[in-house]
User: Which sequence fits this backbone?
């Protein structure tokens, strides 16, 4: 079954969508959308370093994404606003990454594959890494769910209940770095934030509780992956962007449906 | 019996010391109101008690196993976060639906269980925050300017609710009031804070004096009282000029 590249691609996409959905909900609730985007952009430097040292892409991008996210979290509020710091860090690591890649003349690199993903080239090993990473993210978020939710609502409330909001923020940052590292192969660094935010934002329309929103977001993410890949196969379009297009259409349809219901009510 | 003992507490954010050598105790069943100007360290004292602010000197001791119900100063729920009142009450304690209903009853808003938090009015929202703090039968309730955004009759009704909660459960109450001079009349003690404890005493009941009734309106039902500040020292701070 895993011999078929379409099957491997679909499984890879489902794995990433499953992890991105609950994480994406927190990204939306905590207004960290730009943070996710910036972490992803910084990952291209990780790609360049991994190629330069001839090692696997995953640990390199994970390390750079994590360093970038931790640095921004530590520096935020010390003279610069968060979005300014993110802009400096993310775009300079993207630029350094692109410049570094150009020095690697010995190897032929398809940079597009990292910017937009290359889901159809997912190998069995890639699949293992993606599902391992996704399972870790889902396990972490499930384990800390109450604490994460309390910290998101109000940090002092979390403290009073015996949680440490700083630690919970660290767990989210770690999850974000892992998700970015595994999602590069699927949608590429430029579209990772879309996979985090669009399913969660679409799910908001239909959800009454945080848990329902995460579950619906996962459903939308998986549906987008399957339909997007199918569409890419039929219409011969790039796979990663096709997945994001389907997610965006679902977002649009769900919001139009809500507006219609509100008009009637 | 003493539930909370604060000894020689100082709290600083960077170079800015907001609390200096504060001593404070809260006894079982007591209602204590903290007043003070903006930046006087009221919230920092509460944050130090719940462990959210680290003391630079001194310490906060709580009775072993003390259960704290905390009502934060401001709780903003992002429009993108769907959450029912029921789910919010169960935020940190997995309690049965019956307990949720009892807590809402005790807070005076019995029928909100299935409503969305973002659709509540200001007064309903504050009472749901109170219900959540009551959910695990706390020994002490900490309220940080819980009547912020409520009008005077609304504040008075909220204070009467808190009095009722104390009568029903016997829990201690430590609350911050944003008003320097008007406090909950059921307070056993009022502490005036301005970086340190400036003065403390009991509130004066103002039920009969006509000039106070004019000030508080007729609808507050004796829930509010005046606190007269008797400072034995003088501050030469410019930020107090407005008082």
Assistant:
């Amino acid at each position: 079954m895993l011999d078929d590249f379409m099957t491997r691609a679909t499984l890879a996409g489902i794995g990433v969508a499953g992890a991105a959905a609950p994480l994406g909900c927190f990204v939306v609730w905590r207004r960290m959308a730009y943070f996710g985007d910036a972490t992803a952009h910084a990952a291209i430097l990780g790609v360049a370093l991994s190629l330069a040292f001839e090692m696997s892409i995953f640990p390199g991008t994970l390390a750079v994404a994590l360093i970038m996210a931790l640095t921004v979290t530590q520096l935020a509020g010390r003279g610069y606003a968060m979005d300014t710091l993110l802009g400096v860090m993310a775009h300079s690591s993207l630029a350094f990454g692109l410049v570094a890649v150009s020095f690697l003349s010995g190897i032929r690199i398809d940079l597009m594959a990292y910017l937009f993903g290359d889901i159809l080239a997912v190998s069995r090993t890639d699949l293992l890494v993606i599902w391992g990473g996704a399972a870790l993210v889902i396990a972490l978020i499930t384990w800390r769910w109450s604490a994460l939710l309390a910290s998101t609502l109000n940090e002092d409330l979390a403290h009073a209940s015996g949680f440490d909001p700083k630690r919970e923020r660290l767990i989210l940052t770690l999850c974000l770095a892992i998700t970015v590292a595994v999602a590069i192969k699927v949608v590429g660094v430029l579209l990772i934030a879309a996979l985090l935010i669009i399913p969660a934002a679409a799910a908001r329309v239909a959800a009454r509780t945080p848990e329902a929103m995460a579950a619906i977001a996962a459903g939308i993410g998986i549906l987008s992956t399957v339909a997007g890949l199918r569409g890419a196969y039929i219409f011969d379009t790039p796979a990663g962007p096709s997945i994001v297009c389907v997610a965006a259409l679902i977002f649009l349809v769900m919001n139009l449906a809500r507006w219609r219901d509100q008009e009637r009510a | 019996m003493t539930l909370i003992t604060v000894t020689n507490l100082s709290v600083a954010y960077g170079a800015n010391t907001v609390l200096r050598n504060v001593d404070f105790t809260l006894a079982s069943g007591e209602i204590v109101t903290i007043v003070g100007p903006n930046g006087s360290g009221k919230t920092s004292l509460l944050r130090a008690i719940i462990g959210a602010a680290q003391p630079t000197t001194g310490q906060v001791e709580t009775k072993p196993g003390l259960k704290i119900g905390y009502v934060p100063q401001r709780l903003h729920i992002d429009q993108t976060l769907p959450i029912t009142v029921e789910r919010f009450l169960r935020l940190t304690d997995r309690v049965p639906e019956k307990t949720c209903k009892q807590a809402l009853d005790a807070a005076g808003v019995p029928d909100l269980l299935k409503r969305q938090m973002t659709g509540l009015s200001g007064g309903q929202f504050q009472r749901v925050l109170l219900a959540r703090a009551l959910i695990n039968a706390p020994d002490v309730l900490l309220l940080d300017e819980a009547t912020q955004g409520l009008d005077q009759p609304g504040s008075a009704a909220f204070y009467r609710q808190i009095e009722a909660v104390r009568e029903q459960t016997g829990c201690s109450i430590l609350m911050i009031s944003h008003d320097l001079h008007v406090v909950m009349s059921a307070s056993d003690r009022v502490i005036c804070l301005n970086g340190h404890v400036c003065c403390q005493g009991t509130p004066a009941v103002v039920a009969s004096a006509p000039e106070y009734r004019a000030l508080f309106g007729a609808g507050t039902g004796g829930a509010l009282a005046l606190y007269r500040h008797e400072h034995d020292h003088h501050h030469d701070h410019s930020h107090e000029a407005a008082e």
The radius of gyration of chain A is 18 Å. The CA atoms of residues 75 and 108 of chain A lie 37 Å apart.
